Amino acid sequence: MSASGGTKAIVAALAANLAIAASKFVAFAFSGSSSMLAEGVHSLADSGNQALLLVGGKKAQREATPQHPFGYGRERYIYAFLVSIILFSVGGMFALYEGYEKIKHPHEIEHWYWPVGVLVFAIIAESFSFRTAIKESNVLRGGKSWKEFVRHAKAPELPVVLLEDLGALVGLILALGGVGLALLTGDGVWDGIGTICIGVLLVLIAVVLAIETKSLLLGESAGVEQVEKIEAAVVDGAAVTRVIHMRTLHLGPEELLVAAKIAVRHDDTAAEVAAAIDAAEARIREAVPIARVIYLEPDIYSEAEAAKGPDREASPGGPAQHGTEH
Predict the structure, then answer these.
(1) What value does the mean pLDDT take over residues 136-165?
(2) What is the largest CA-CA distance in the chain?
(3) Residue 311 CB neighbour total at 10 angstroms
(4) Can you tell me the distance from the alpha carbon of 297 to that of 278, in angstroms, rounded to the nearest whole number?
(5) Which of 13, 54, 191, 266 is most buried (CB neighbours < 10 A)?
(6) Is the distance from CB of 170 to CB of 90 less than 8 angstroms?
(7) Looking at residue 18, what DSSP letter applies?
(8) Are 256 and 291 in contact (CB under 8 A)?
(9) DSSP code, position 187
(10) Number of neighbours of residue 240 by Cβ within 10 angstroms
(11) What pLDDT shows up at residue 305?
């Protein structure tokens, strides 16, 4: 990822949300609009979320220790998961509660120019933040659709900021609609309905974030393209003839573990096998630089054993992603 790209998007979102949150609370104080209160809490929650992402990124940079020999790269996933919880509880559930209360006990919006002015300002500010997130994401997205990028990105920060900014923009439009209808009809119930819509939106975004970050926390393999590059790099046709089976695991967004059983020639000496493994590791790191932890086990390939089918006990998790086990 650039960690720099992710950090730039987070800082832009944090600055925008702090300014927007302050303006929304001022507007709520003058107008009494529940949509403004819900949006203020939403922006405050988003600010806390961006602070969590920055903390997670900083903690993930710590050196490996004997207790955590693979380092702390997954801290970024943990903090991203916390973001989804905060967005769900503080942002979504609060908005649903506030909207319900406003529908139950509606009152007219006072000083309408405060909420309308703040919402217009917030939409402009969020648009700049969203634009920054899109620009930084495009560097990594390549030819993927936005849905594929959010679902398969190994670095959680940019997808989180993208979804938060998108939710914020849609939420602001819903709030503006609720306030506008309440002003046009003189019925404060519309303000409450707009607030409930904001709550539903935030809950849905929080659920999507939780699902995606849960997958990262459990441990995801390298992408198909990276797996193919690793397999091609391992086999040189001379000392290493094939990949018998292989597993990959992201220890963090920019750190990949590769474990593979490779076929070597039966008459090679121990020194020749060791040299072949060293050369294969160098080729893997050149092909996929984030492959930093590599374990290669030499073996003799057997057609008879391979014909028996995948061996689920050959390595944890069942059949191999690619190649043939024996």
Answers:
(1) 84
(2) 89
(3) 16
(4) 12
(5) 191
(6) no
(7) H
(8) yes
(9) -
(10) 24
(11) 63
pTM of the predicted structure, to 2 decimals: 0.73
- Three-state secondary structure call for residue 310: coil
Q: Can you list the pairs that 302-308 forms with residues at least 24 positions away whose Cβ atoms lie under 8 Å?
A: 302/326, 306/244
Q: What is the overall mean pLDDT for the chain?
A: 83
Residues in Cβ contact with 273 at an 8 Å cutoff, skipping those fewer than 6 apart:
239, 264, 298
Residue 149 tokens, joined? 């990028």
Other beta carbons less than 10 A from residue 89's beta carbon: 14
Question: Contact, 179 vs 191, CB < 8 A?
Answer: yes
Residue 128's nearest CA partner among 51, 37, 16 is 16
* Residues 155 and 254 sit within 8 Å (Cβ to Cβ): yes
Residue 223's pLDDT band, with cuts at 50, 70 and 90, is confident
Task: Answer yes or no: are the C-beta atoms of 287 and 229 closer than 8 Å.
Answer: yes
Q: What would the DSSP string read from start to end of 146-184?
A: HHHHHHH-SS-HHHHHHHHHHHHHHHHHHHHHHHHHHHH
Q: Cα separation of 177 and 97, whole Å?
A: 19
Residue at token pair 């940079």: 61
Strands 240-252 and 255-264: antiparallel
Which position has the higher pLDDT, 47 or 111? 47
Q: What is the pLDDT of residues 13-57, one digit of tens each?
A: 888 888 888 888 888 888 888 778 888 887 888 888 888 888 888
Q: Flag whether pLDDT at 321 surpasses 70.
A: no
Q: What is the mean pLDDT of residues 68-87?
A: 86
Q: Tell me: the pLDDT tens digits for 302-316?
A: 666 665 655 555 544
Residue 257, helix vs strand vs coil: strand
Distance CA 102, CA 194 (A): 10
